[in-house]
Amino acid sequence: MNNLMIEKTKSSPKVVLNAITGECEISGSSYPENASEFYLPIFAWIDKYQLEITKEITMNFHLDYLNSSSIKFISEIVDKLNKYSKVGIDVEINWEYSDIDDDIKELGEEFKEEVTCKFNLKEI
Predict the structure, then answer these.
(1) Do residues 13 and 1 lie in contact, with contact meaning Cβ atoms separated by under 8 Å?
(2) Which pLDDT score is estimated for 29?
(3) Residue 64, SS3 per DSSP
(4) Any idea of the CA torsion for 41, 8, 6, 34, to the nearest 10 degrees?
(5) Contacts with 17 (C-beta within 8 Å, 6 or more apart), sequence order
(6) In this structure, what are the phi and psi dihedrals at residue 110, rounded to the nearest 5 degrees?
(7) According to DSSP H, which parts of the chain are helical?
């Protein structure tokens, strides 16, 4: 299975999904013109990882801006990871936020309430 790497642009986040280590990162701002087109390869990678690799995964989010459609897709990623944890695989989600960004912090708090997997809120 291949890693997935997407370079950061003005309107889309950097994405690094490592199939060997299970360490994953989505960082930056997310307001792509077509959020569905941007996030579908990430969903496909996570689905394939869950089928082929079946080992622990850590997702690190460090987002500084999300539009409403991006929030929906990030929520779906969190949901996929939570479902993956329910089959007995270790899943850890790290949600990093700036000490001056209450919106991103509150979004992370909302996601944390919805999952049973390990979800860490980290002020940076």
Answers:
(1) no
(2) 97
(3) strand
(4) 20
(5) 3, 4, 5, 24, 25, 42, 45, 46, 49
(6) -65, -45
(7) 35-52, 68-85, 102-114
| Structural domains for the chain | 4-123 (3.30.750.24)
Which H helix or E strand runs over 95?
strand 91-97
**22-73 pLDDT, tens digit each:** 999 999 999 999 999 999 999 999 999 999 998 999 999 999 999 999 999 9
Task: Summarize the chain as % helix, strand, coil (round to 5).
Answer: 40, 30, 30
Give the predicted TM-score (pTM) of the model: 0.95
**DSSP state at residue 5:** E
